[in-house]
Specification:
alpha/beta; two-stranded antiparallel ribbon; 5-stranded mixed β-sheet; 383 residues; DNA polymerase, domain 1; flat; 3 domains; single chain
Length: 383
């Protein structure tokens, strides 16, 4: 297979597959040393056609591909889609509707975040050659082995998707995955507005000054990383943002005393900019601080015994249903449920509530018991 390197070739390929009910999509990119992912390759397949597209080719315009990805009549199938969707979001496209085979596999009983090659092996009885997995996709020319490897990621997926979808339909779980896909496709997941960068982090305090500086420093780091096209962590570590918001340094000496800030940072080109961001946030902390609800507290952390019981219940319900437990609830979810019967978590809503959440509340009220039956845990309703 020869990669597509011209707009005319890409346009012709997209015209051939635009009437397909679904296409499979994968990307190869580099971002170890950059803020913005550098798109190196896009692989696309339908049931009949496949192509490897070189977005680094001189003069190529990806508009035909982007139009295809935005077409609401075509399902776009990925495996572990989040980073791919982020790339296309950065190119100005909301890719919808989508189907993530990794999420679908979790709903279909294939375990927690199953790898693509393992899923192909189990469903198609095919071994995927992963020899080119860790390769420099930005280097040209690409070898025949690299191209074959890249194409295989979408051609196998084109055969796998109908089987996986049918399995979910048969088990009545397609709606579960559709709910997940709506959330996954939400453009807010891929927001790069610096003023919203604090949402990626976990504030530990809730005073106005702390939150204002926390937001201001996160925004400064995001703007700096974007402008310099460097990873956020190379500008400032996450833990430094929390320490700065806690200690509130307003001069170079105060900044240099912080343990999580690199030695000499205040004297670097970044120091004065960061200090200015701190001072700006402190001018009107009440007005600038994000409005977030302080977690409800019953005098301390959630009772450990309740959390542990909820973990056992989650495992039992997940095993009974043949669903990955991580898809139902996370440990932070369980901690919130342990402290609050009305916690705003997905595990208490929709299909998750039916499968686990309602029972979790019954367990807290003493209406259910967990009984060891051989090597399995049974859930027993108490009269």
């Amino acid at each position: 297979m020869t990669p597509i390197t011209t707009t005319s070739e890409l346009d012709a390929f997209c015209a051939r597959i635009k009437s397909a009910p679904f296409i499979t999509v994968d990307t190869e990119f580099m971002r170890e040393t950059t803020y913005w992912p550098r798109l190196c390759l896009v692989q696309v397949a339908s049931e009949e056609h496949a192509a490897v597209i070189d977005p680094m080719a001189d003069g190529i315009d990806l508009a035909p591909l982007l139009a295809l990805l935005a077409d609401p009549t075509i399902v776009k199938v990925f495996h572990a889609a989040r980073q791919d969707l982020e790339i296309f979001h950065n190119l100005g496209v909301r890719t919808f509707p989508v189907f993530d085979s990794q999420v679908a596999a979790m709903a279909a009983g294939f375990g927690e975040q199953i790898a693509y090659d393992a899923l192909v092996r189990q469903m198609l009885k095919v071994d995927v050659d992963k020899s080119s997995r860790f390769t420099d996709w930005a280097r040209r020319p690409l070898s025949a082995a690299q191209i074959e490897y890249a194409a295989g990621d979408v051609t196998h997926l084109a055969k796998l998707y109908p089987k996986l979808r049918q399995r979910l339909e048969r088990e009545g779980r397609l709606a579960w995955v559709a709910e997940e896909m709506t959330a996954l496709s939400d453009p807010a997941n891929y927001e790069t507005d610096p003023e919203k960068a604090w949402r990626r982090l976990k504030p530990r305090r809730f005073t106005a000054k702390y939150l204002a500086v926390f937001k201001g420093v996160a925004a400064w780091r995001e703007r700096t990383a974007q402008t310099r096209d460097q990873p956020r962590g190379r500008i400032l570590k996450d833990e430094a943002i929390d320490e700065i918001a806690t200690q509130l340094p307003t001069d170079a000496d105060g900044l240099n005393r912080l343990r999580s800030v690199p030695k000499g940072f205040a004297g670097s080109r970044f120091g004065p900019e960061l200090l200015e961001a701190i001072r700006a946030a402190l001018k009107d902390p009440e007005g600038y601080a994000p409005k977030i609800d302080k977690p409800q507290s019953n005098g301390g952390p959630p009772p450990g015994a309740v959390v542990e019981l909820l973990k056992v219940l989650l495992k039992a319900r997940a095993e009974d249903a043949g669903v990955a437990s991580k898809l139902i609830a996370t440990v932070p979810d369980l901690e919130k449920i342990a402290s609050d019967d009305t916690a705003p978590v997905a595990a208490l809503q929709g299909w998750r509530r039916e499968l686990f959440g309602a029972d979790a509340l019954k367990l807290k009220r003493g209406e259910l018991a967990l009984v060891l039956d051989g090597d399995r845990v049974r859930v027993v309703t108490l009269s």
